[in-house]
Design a protein that fits this description.
422 residues, alpha+beta, 5-stranded mixed β-sheet, 12 strands, globular
């Protein structure tokens, strides 16, 4: 029996989250902004129709948004995470086997399910809308790549009703012939340019390209994608993604900083997040790079950038050890007299914790550090990130925190923020 996959993807997820508690915005154009309200990272269909580009700088289009009646929101990550959890639970209640792919997408295995697949997709779509007030598109196909492409079609053409089934070869080939190759999962704009130079402009062109040429020119990953477009299954449910070889955590400050103390505090926060990501994939870091910089839009004499690489005493994911090393590194590159806009950490030379052999002559890890880090992660997952933190990190309201002037209320975590009826 051939496998059947479905991709359930939320429509304009960040923007749709903002609409859940503001039903009067159901048809209002909405955009959501990046950290420090820098640029547009999400748009509703209505905002796209007005020509608002993804990545547009907010300060450049602010007046245009006001005149066009577009609502702009700062990123409300706590709200988005809570809504995502509810949506994924709802999908799981409809289907026995799902794989959460991102904050707004999940795969589902429909193999062996009885009945019309399009009807099943519409039932899922209606269930998520009725229980979560979240619009979704559902793409169905014999491979994950085809399901992803079907989802693109479900969102692009409203006549589909938000569900497209490509298990029918005739319907599949029809979509492959008209879908731009850049809409194929994993292709994107940069690879699209190279493909177009070879005359590969549609998903159909890629599916029927010479596989040997594709492999030699672009590698096995794109060859696998082309095979999946042909209906050959190469990516299965719950296949572990490649582990990250580097982990970065960096954000621009909410305001320019001239003193080292708030920068040290911001860095400790970023180190904690990087260490958390490290533990999530079961890795240890041997080295890290700390960088500090001013804005690139100031005069040359006010501009400064520096970085320093530091080797850790032993491969680790210990937040406190890494914070101590990061503080020492920051002291080496900090210079007085500059207004700094950003600090960051990059973890490199990652090794797997379960496959690492300790150096007999290296400094041993602190006792019970694994249990301590595990306890911190469990508490932060259960009660909210930042509940347990390194002593140098103060609770909210610090100058280094990202600017979010258009932040919506904490609907899902503060009773006082809930809208009132009547």
């Amino acid at each position: 029996m051939r496998r059947v996959y479905a991709l359930i993807d939320c429509n304009s997820f960040y923007c749709s989250c903002e609409r859940i508690f503001r039903p009067e915005l159901a048809t209002t154009p909405i955009v959501v902004l990046s950290n420090n309200d820098g640029c547009v990272i999400a748009r509703t269909r209505e905002a796209k129709a007005l020509g608002i580009a993804m990545g547009a700088a907010f300060f450049e289009i602010r007046e245009q948004l006001r005149k066009s009646g577009v609502m702009a929101f700062s990123s409300n990550y706590a709200l988005y995470a809570d809504v995502s959890n509810k949506v994924m639970r709802c999908i799981h209640s409809c289907l026995p086997d799902i794989e959460v792919y991102s904050i707004d997408e999940s795969w589902a295995d429909l193999t062996g399910m009885q009945g019309d697949l399009t009807a099943i997709g519409k039932d899922i779509k209606d269930r998520v809308w009725s229980e979560c007030a979240m619009p979704v598109g559902v793409g169905i196909g014999h491979t994950k790549t085809l399901a992803k492409l079907a989802n693109y079609a479900a969102k692009k053409w409203q006549k589909t009703g938000g569900v497209v089934d490509l298990t029918d070869p005739v319907r599949r080939d029809k979509l492959l012939r008209i879908a731009p190759v850049e809409e194929v999962w994993g292709v994107g704009r940069r690879l699209n340019q190279s493909l177009e130079a070879l005359g590969i402009r549609t998903a159909w062109d890629l599916a029927n390209a010479d596989l040997t040429m594709i492999r030699k020119t672009f590698g096995r990953v794109l060859e696998r994608t082309a095979r999946e477009l042909r209906g050959e299954e190469w990516i299965r449910m719950h296949q572990s993604p490649d582990l990250k070889k580097e982990i970065c955590s960096a954000k621009s400050f909410g305001t320019k900083l001239k003193q080292i103390e708030p920068i040290r505090e911001a860095l400790a926060s970023y180190v904690a997040r990087a260490a958390e990501k490290l533990r999530e994939q079961g890795s240890l870091a041997e080295e890290m790079i700390i960088n500090l910089q001013t804005s690139g839009f100031v005069e040359d004499r006010q501009r400064y950038f520096n970085s320093v690489r530091c080797v850790l005493p032993h491969p680790t994911n210990d937040t406190m050890l890494m914070t101590q090393a990061a503080n020492q590194a920051l002291s080496r590159i900090f210079r007085k007299g500059y207004a700094y806009s950003k600090v960051g950490i990059l973890l490199t030379n990652l090794v797997q914790a379960d496959g690492y052999t300790p150096d007999l002559f290296a400094e041993p890890p602190r006792k019970n550090v694994e249990r301590l880090m595990e306890t911190i992660d469990v508490l932060n997952q259960r009660f909210g990130r930042g509940v347990v933190r390194v002593g140098t990190i103060w609770p909210g309201g610090r100058a280094w925190e990202v600017k979010r002037e258009l932040l919506s209320p904490a609907y899902t975590s503060n009773w006082g923020a809930l809208p009132r009826a009547g």
